[in-house]
Every structure is written in structure tokens, then in C-alpha cells.
Predict the structure of Homoserine dehydrogenase.
Amino acid sequence: MKSVNVGLCGLGTVGSGTFNVMQRNLEDIARRAGKPVRITHIGARRDNPACEVGEDVKISRDIFDVVRDPDVHIVVELIGGYDTAKALVLEAISNGKHVVTANKALIAVHGNEIFKAAEANGVVVAYEAAVAGGIPIIKGIREGLVANDIKWLAGIINGTGNFILTEMREKGRVFDDVLKEAQALGYAEADPTFDVEGIDAAHKLTILASIAFGIPLQFDKVYTEGISRITREDVQYAEELGYRIKHLGFTRKTAEGVELRVHPTLVPEKRLLANVNGVLNAVLVEGDAVGPTMYYGPGAGSEQTASSVIADIVDIAREIDNAGNVPHLGYSTETENLPVLPVSEIETAYYLRITVKDEIGQMAQIASIMSENGINIEAILQKEPEEDASTVPLILLTHPVREKHMDKAIEALQGLDSVIKPIVRIRVEQLDG
Ligand SMILES: NC(=O)c1ccc[n+]([C@@H]2O[C@H](COP(=O)([O-])OP(=O)(O)OC[C@H]3O[C@@H](n4cnc5c(N)ncnc54)[C@H](O)[C@@H]3O)[C@@H](O)[C@H]2O)c1
Ligand SMILES: N[C@@H](CCO)C(=O)O
Ligand code: NA
């Protein structure tokens, strides 16, 4: 093929970044691809003043005109959301076009169906930009770590959430104020509850677990907790114990099945992951041959994400007549269907914040409930009484325990007369391979 024509659907944050980087680096991109690669058709509801689109590019207000354009070889879906995006991608596939998307919601929820359709039609659906923005993590795992039996991976995979936690810790800012800034910077999802309630991270973890372990995409089985209940006090107490609170996606293969979970996590402050701040993302992957490797970079942003979108476009352009030599989820046959474990069977250490009446004998009662449930305490901090002087926060760090035993202990603790507020629990991961 002499030159490759790209149809761009959606001209928002990522769409405009993709257009501008393609224009700016056109010559280098052509030399790297071995042929000219051009955006020839844009589908957008309105023009974007951030993009100077020349006369040579066709503009359609109906994005479906792009997937029906016989001259377009690669359709780039950057509109986001589930339904229209799914219809658009499936129609592109059935019209024999390759697809590039940044839409993790679409891949995590409808990816199994979409990849099947793509394979049946001999086209590729590429999604590097969908996970960890500009970091080449899909390529890193699916190709770079192909030799390894992957044991586990842990990642900071939502830029907005990490930006919020960082600003709260470093500057003492309040949650809502930082979220507004993340939205203005173009980091947040159209519905920002996807960011702060962990749904976006769960979409990305679904994808990472599938390419790490060769299991089907199973978004509905991810245990998901967001950061919206994290307080400044917990951030501070964690710090006194030598930890940082990070919102992690975590997946591990055990003899019983696969853990798939997204939640705030205490990470020892000396770990690299604990020092990934702002909108930056990082994914730590443990392979049996290579050991731990970490991938670090911008998790969101216009040109940062465009970097991954264009990497996929060039990958396809290089092999356009022979595309598809890397299987969509990295495995060309269905893997043994490893079950996903319920969260009750997962074992982690815990940080607990228990607010008790300031009276004698509390500690003994708490210690005895913990020991009845087989839970060992690693550290206890007794803080100063709170403003009203009648209650004190007790901060406990435990050794690893099955979640179902911790559930029982918390239920018993919560039943004590002296425990007067809901107990806060945050899981702890040492992340030391
Ligand atoms: N913003 C980021 O940093 C980032 C990073 C990685 C992935 N993503 C993903 O990229 C995708 C796009 O995100 P964004 O931040 O660019 O969003 P955005 O809201 O800035 O852009 C989406 C654009 O698509 C347009 N659009 C939506 N439906 C349309 C339709 N039916 N017809 C025509 N135009 C339509 C909107 O008008 C808007 O201009 C999403 O799937 C998002 O999750 C975003
Ligand atoms: N809203 C997402 C965009 C990148 O996927 C984030 O903040 O990480
Ligand atoms: Na990526």
C-alpha cells in the first residue's frame, strides 16, 4: 500500500492532540512507517479551535460517515462512552477497517465481542492509549514480556485520582477543588465519578489482567473501591507509619484463581510506586524471568495520550497488508479459564482507624477480638484525643489476613459500645516481589 489514510472520530482532548502531533511530526512518522500516513477525514460535532484543519481533510458532522468512507483504512475512535462507540467500531470492522481507540470502558466491557469480530474480519483493534495514557504498557507486556510467566502486577492507573491524592498530601488541598482542576486540565472522564470511584481504574485493570494472564476480559468481576472516602487524617497517619496511600489496581495469579481488585492501598514510602505523583501513572509487573519491571509516565493529557494513539496507527500502517500478528489480548488460544477470586478470599495486611471513647481498657478489648480472629497486629498508634476530647483515634497495622476474617473482626469491633464511628480500613501491600 502506497499511503495510509486515517479517519479521526472525535476532536476533543485526545482527538485534537492526535491531529496536532500527526501534523507536526508528519515526515518522521512517514519515515518510520515506511509510507505516508495522513488524517484524511475527521468526524466531529464541531470544529476545535485548537486544530488548524486544512482544505485537504474532509470534515463530517456525522462520525458514521468516516467509517463508511471507502478511502479510510484506519478508524480512530476518540469519542468515549459505550453505545455509540461500540456501534461505530463494529461498523468500521465490518467495513474491513482497522481501529485504534483510547476507550478503556469500551474495551473492558465489550472487548471480547469486538476482538472476535475483528479477528473474523482480518482487522486489528489497537488500544495502547486506553491504559496508562502515554505509557507503552500494552506493548510492554504483550510483546516485551512475552517470555515471562507473569506473577502479579500493580499500577497507579488513573491520573485524575493520583493527582487528587498528591495535591491533598503535598498541599493539604481539599478533594473537590483538586477534582475541578483535573477536569479543567482535560484529565478526567466525561463523568468524573468514573475516576474517583475507581471505575476507570477497574476498566484498565481488566485489560491489564487479560494481557498478563491470557484470561477473557471480566470487568464485572473486579472488586472496586474509589478514593472519595480518603481523608487528610488517614493520609497523615499512614505517613507517620512510613506509608503513602495510593489508589492501586492489583492483579495476582494464585493457585486458587486470579485476584482482580482496585482500591486505596498503603504502600511503603520507599517503593518507587509510592513516589509516583500528580497525573503520572506507573505499572509494576513481576515476571518469573525478568523479575520486577516498572513502566512510568503520563497517565492522561492531550498530546501525551496522542503519543500512544499514533504509536498504534504506525504499528498498523507498517503492516497494513499483513496486520494482526500480535493477538488482541496477547494469547492466540484461550487460556485455561482461571477463576477470579471473590474479595473475601483475598489476603492482605490492613490499616485500621478505630475511633474509641477515651477510656481505660479499650486496647485490651480490641486486641482480644483481633486474636480471636487470628489477626496479628504489627503496629499501633494512639493519637491525641480529637477536638471534643472524649474520643481518640487508634491506628492499627496488621499482618496479612484473609479478608473474610477481617470482615468478622470489624463486625465485632464495630459492635463494641466504645467504638463510636465507622471503622476505616485500607489495605496494605508491601509490593516487594
Ligand atoms: N483525556 C485523557 O487524558 C484521556 C487519556 C486516555 C484515554 N482517554 C479516552 O479517550 C477518549 C476521549 O477522551 P477525551 O478526553 O478526548 O474526551 P473529550 O470529551 O475531550 O472528547 C470527546 C469528543 O468526542 C465528541 N463526540 C462524542 N460523541 C460524539 C458523536 N456521537 N459524534 C461526534 N462527536 C462526538 C465530543 O463532542 C468531544 O469533542 C475517551 O474514551 C477517554 O476515556 C482520555
Ligand atoms: N480519566 C483518565 C484518563 C486517562 O485514561 C485518567 O485520569 O487517568
Ligand atoms: Na498506554
Notes: Residues 133, 158-160, 187-189, 195, 200, 299-300 surround L-homoserine (ligand 2) (CB under 6 Å).
